[in-house]
## 1
Amino acid sequence: MVLSPISNTAVTVGADGYVRVWDYGNKVQFYSQNFATRSEATAIEWIPYSKKNGGRMLAVGFSDGLLRFVILNQSSIELVKVFKIHRRKITHIKSSPDGVTLAVIDESGDIFLCSLNSSKIQDIAPYCLYETGFKVNDVCWDRDSTKILLGCKDGNLAEIKVLRPQQCDNS
């Protein structure tokens, strides 16, 4: 579940593949969307507010490794972009504090980074894969958006230095 940074809206994802939008102040569901998939919706993150996205953009991860970017409209969920970002179930999605990078983690601990562009919502691109091998319990960014901290299922803490797109060699 994620909460809107600008309204009394909560968004949940479920094993049935649905994304549901709620008015938690009035305890009613606004609307829902199933993306005609047999996979479970497993992770969700609110993309940081920008003038272009109006605080209405989310990233939703699925058990088949798909990552969907959506915009919440007045009465519907609009699909913006889709990537097959992992081979396994996506378990965590986390935006960097500066709103420039999105970390997407699968059940094997692999981290895929996506660049976000606050002025062009369609300008989203995966750019770097870290194969950590960690079983991840929780994830957070440091304050300056240069490192990801992973809380691991074995009780350890791992720190990953994050490369920017121009520093990543994808050859």
## 2
Amino acid sequence: MKLLLLITFCIFFNLSVLFSDTSSKWIELLLYDVPGYGICKATSELNGDNGVEVIGKYSVMNLLDKDFSTAWVEGKQGNGITESVYIVIPEECKTINIFAGYGKNSSLYHKNNRPKKIKLSSFIGINPDGYVSETAIIYKALKFEKDFYITLKDTFGIQSFKFPFIISELE
């Protein structure tokens, strides 16, 4: 069984209720594991997952490719509020770097939506034997009760934040 730490980046506008009784709040998360990128999944993607290709033009994997000319673009009607990204992060994570917008150029940055505030939630998860598909890993995950909120500047560039979770509290 693999143990992992997941962080969810949610565009913030509606606050979720903090869990007081987490014993019955286990969820299943299906996350893509693409070599060279990492392990992640979004709640939607523009021209998203067609069941064959995991990495489309606006895939969540673009968040991990270290190329600012690519972007994850949510695929729901509207402005993307409440869409989420699940990313597996290493235990030694100390800093979160966010480029909050389309980084290909300043013009595209200003023509597209950008989050102003995001919610960070943490999940602790396990991958039981046999919980896999052809393209993904399935985790049983439990949400950590504390969330953190980050207000982003409307700036074309990387913004760095201290990782807000204390790993020993999550274990």
## 3
Amino acid sequence: MSGRSHRLGRLFPTRGAPFLATWTVGYFVWSLVPIALLVRVSFGDPSASLYPRGISLAGYEAAITDPDLRGALFHSLLLAGSTVLLATPLGVSLAVGLGSWASRRASMLRSLALAPLAVPPIVLAGGFFFAFRYPLGIIGFGRDAQILGLVTIALPYVVLAQPLAHHGVGQ
């Protein structure tokens, strides 16, 4: 075992599989570096180039003082909060209900509940468009439709995570 793999193995024990430790660290670097770069760029001068030289809060000041951007931020926070407040209890109750059944039918229904995870987002968007336009035309395309769409997208994640969060509880 090389020195680097041995150090990663101590940080991330993988039961004798140093490749898994290296892969895990590599994945986190690959997925978190772009986010760190975006955070760094966000503190630059908005009128400067893509890679700012100094640190400035001018972009954040502009976002707070511009009424259009402030309205968009408020709307995004409203959608996020509504999604969390609706999807969490609905998803947990759905996961508990599916977990209380011990049959092949429950497994099929669980797979059906997780199906939106396998559908590309653009296909879901098209389905939402047609559903909100024709059969559910009373909803329209406003905030209620956005919340309903986001809750529909978030529910499978809650259904997937809830049993994992309670795995081993009471044993």
## 4
Amino acid sequence: MHILGIDPGTRASGLVLFDMTDGHVKHADKAIDHDDLMCAFYNERLDVGGSPLAGGLALTWDQVVIECLSPAGQVIGHDTFDTIFWVGRMFEAAHGPKMPGVELLTRNEIKKRLLGRTNIPGADKHIRQVLVDQVGPKGTKREPGPTFGCSSHSWAALAAVWAYLHPDGVS
């Protein structure tokens, strides 16, 4: 089973394709262009060309997990509305007739599942440490680890996948 995790942004998104059979990231992109991501949904596969993780294959998935925004009682700007717009587009595109299920998880739900609570300062570094501890280290190009290729927003995409896989929280 392959799970596609997405951390939406205003102009590009973090993406990770996680393989449940071996517990490794098969492809990670810290900033995939939204047009490329929409093409992937409509073509029902992600063409990754010469990706060292995927071996230049067209990758498919069985489940999609998208991090989404939740109301925080604060004033929001244009960038937030852009991100909300893209979450909706991705959700709709991932619901094609032959497409797998789609799960939306808020950032607070991800933090709660991975860290046990939501009000943790510097939560991103703590979440990354949970992922390294539970999924595995990045490793090197010569000896890639389970999270090899993750950087920047692809860590947030992997966090969404890991939270989806652990609805009762991690231990």
